[in-house]
């Protein structure tokens, strides 16, 4: 059984994951209308992955006798300035998500909720992967700079970039 505090914190994370999905969907659309097909495909997949992160938490809350809540979501930005700016935003957003997961782990320990603590380890591992991936992409983008030819190749390259985690959640 989830404590009230734990349940509220998990519901807060459900909202964050749902908002992440919306943010990445907005990025997919922005890249698509700029003709960056590879980047947009990548962002559509990222958006789907965030929805899975949300659903995995959602089902856990209900399984543990809580009530997973669907709430309103903040509207994402629709303009990202440049591709560098967009991936910077993505990287910083993942750092924010990691911080939020760490806070959840902290609450689970405070509440002596070892089942939730154990469940959250999947997210801890996933965030390591997400941060590393975002950083790798950002480094590549920074190398390219304003070079149009480089950006064209990058857009092709990113199609091969595996965003599917080896430990994808079973929802
Ligand atoms: Fe669900 Fe990208 O964090």
In CATH, the topology is named Ferritin
- Mean pLDDT score: 93
Number of domains: 1
Ligand identities: MU-OXO-diiron
CA radius of gyration is 17 Å
| Count of alpha/pi helices | 5
* Low-confidence residue ranges: 163-171
Compressed to H and E, one letter per element, the order equals HHHHH
* Number of strand segments: 0
Structural class: mainly alpha
β-sheet strand percentage = under 5%
CATH class: Mainly Alpha
User: What would you call the shape?
Assistant: elongated
What does this structure look like?
By secondary structure, the chain is mostly helical. The protein has one domain (4-157): Ferritin, core subunit, four-helix bundle (Ferritin). It is built from 5 helices and no strands. Helix 1 (4-33) packs antiparallel against helix 2, helix 1 runs antiparallel to helix 3 (83-110) and helix 3 (83-110) packs antiparallel against helix 4. The longest helix has 31 residues, at 114-144. The chain is elongated, with a radius of gyration of 17 Å. The two termini are 20 Å apart. Mean pLDDT is 93; it is low at 163-171.
